[in-house]
Design brief:
This protein has about 120 residues and is mainly alpha-helical. The protein contains four helices and no strands.
Length: about 120
């Protein structure tokens, strides 16, 4: 018998079956699965795309060496947001994207300030 101090191998099949994945099926078959509307699906897809672009930007900015590389990375994120905004079919999605564009514009201004005053002193 294993003591409580020992850990089990996470690749054991029993550990993956111990907790059902709620995204594959509901834990209780009597509970109906909520059908998402087209607007909810659009908003979720847009949020996922914007979040992925943001995570990619943060990773690339940490590896960028020059101001030109950082500017190019910021422009690529803005391009992704602008491309996604063309597909926004609902008012909620468009409002979320408008807010994100405003944040990116502020980020551009902050980035220019950092390049001018912070990175030039390193």
């Amino acid at each position: 018998m294993a003591s409580t101090n020992q850990t089990t191998n996470p690749t054991e099949p029993a550990s993956s079956l111990a907790t059902p994945d709620p995204f594959l099926r509901p834990a209780d078959p009597k509970v109906p699965v909520k059908e998402l509307t087209q607007a909810e699906l659009d908003l979720a897809l847009i949020e996922l795309t914007i979040e992925a672009a943001w995570n990619n930007t943060i990773t690339l900015l940490n590896t960028a060496k020059t101001a030109t590389e950082r500017r190019k990375i910021r422009r690529q994120e803005m391009h992704v947001v602008n491309t996604v905004s063309e597909t926004a079919g609902t008012r909620a999605a468009q409002e979320m994207l408008d807010g994100r564009i405003r944040l990116l514009e502020v980020g551009f201004e902050l980035g220019e300030w950092e390049e001018k005053y912070w990175f030039s002193r390193l």
